[in-house]
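Dear Dr. H.,

I hope your travels went smoothly. While you were away I took the liberty of generating a structure for the chain from your last submission, since the lab meeting agenda had it listed for discussion. I wanted you to have the full record in hand beforehand rather than looking at slides cold. The sequence, exactly as received, is reproduced here:
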Amino acid sequence: MFLLSLPADVYQFGSDLLWLSLLVSKIFQFYQILTSTIPASGVNTHVIIVIFSGVCIFYTAIGGLKAVIWTDALQFIITIATFLAVLILGIKSTGGILVVWQKALDGKRLDIFDFNPDPTKRDSFWIILIGVTVNVMSYTTIDQSFVQKFLSVATFRNSALSMVYYAVGVIIITIISIFIGLIMYVRYSECDLFTSGIIETNEQLVPYYVLDVSRNIPGFSGLFFAGLFSAALSAQSAFLNCLSGTIYEDFVKTFLKPTNHDVSKILKIIALITGIISFSMTFLIEILGNIFPLYISLLGLTCGPVLGIFTSGILFPTTNAKGAFYGGIGALLIAACIVIPIKYYEIQGILKYAPKPLSTNNCSLNQTTFIFDENEAREPHFIFRISFYYFTVIGTASSVIFSLIISYMTNKNDPPVDKALLSPVIHFLLPRDEAVDNKVKYNTIEQALENLTASSDQVVSTDYAE
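The corresponding predicted structure, in token form, is as follows:
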């Protein structure tokens, strides 16, 4: 997601994404990475999807968490090397950082302080600040793949440090990706690859650029594609491992009482099934358009309501189980009623986002320049023109509001909530009730983490040592 969609997005729409800190997406990696290989390899995309999905599913199902951790570490090194190599090569090919910065300013690629509050703009200061902040919260705070890793360390302090290291790393990688997008704009500012018909999708822009500037450097394109595939495999393997563990813990374990020997087999079967399902879903992405906004849209559709459930639970003591459950369902329906029509309008060409100025004046061949006219298309209703960055905000807010309303309507003799279950931010607002404090004693976060780590180590050593 970083190395392909983010630079291409900056190339077309500018660097508002300087505020963005996104993790590599899950199911979208494979299709995004593999479509980008078409200009370089000429191999059928569907064939590559089958091969690499099979490799990922195999080592995740057989190796388990240990295999995922080791491969992630090695793939991270390859990916970082790719980032740095592309950045250094790009700076040298354009004449230096100052040249890139000045031309990006002239081309309006650095207009990050657009304070227009209009929510129908594709991106602005407020849209990025609010929308992206909630988006990042939706997966770094509640996403199982993140929580699983943060809970796998020995102490709460180490877990907090892991989050800090992650944040610093993502910020650095995001800035590098954005600068790569600016470098590509400088190189192709007088011959836009999209309007001239040289490439068709955003995901093909970075590979085309790398092949263009490294044609005289043997092996560089191989390093680049190795980095892309490493990033995709790393994210997908972590996703499969996490999902298989979650399905086992929440569903299988509830109905079955497997032995330690059976647990290992069950986890491998679940990883295989979920891998096949995610592999099948990659073919659906082919008809849904630009991957970057699609990913953000689906993130808002699914993660927004879940973030709302957690938010209402830790900030509002009046929220009960019925309120949280039905509030989440209501928010999911509202988000779906917004996201699905918007994607339909985009596929039909009714809803389009105009890129920043681009030119084909210096293209070597005679090409017809496409000029986007926003007035030509029939505009959808206001609600269906809201920026996709706000979808998670809408889902979260709807979930919290519905949860509070339903909890109020169904709050009949609900026991008071112990403050240990609520965020310390609101403790000063809670009444002092000795009866509640003495009724049930809960472990602190540190104690719960130590207990969970101890039990997890015991299960992992049994499950994956075979």
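Two observations you may find useful: The chain is about 65% helix and 0% strand. The chain has one domain: 5-463.

With kind regards,
E. W.
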